[in-house]
Amino acid sequence: MNVAVKQRLAAGDTVVVLSGKDKGKRGKIKVVFSRAGKAEVEGINVVKRHTKATPKAKAGILDKELPLPVSKLMYVCPKCNKPAKLAHRDTAGVHERICRRCGEPADRPVKA
Question: How far apart are CA 11 and CA 17, in angstroms?
Answer without folding.
Answer: 15
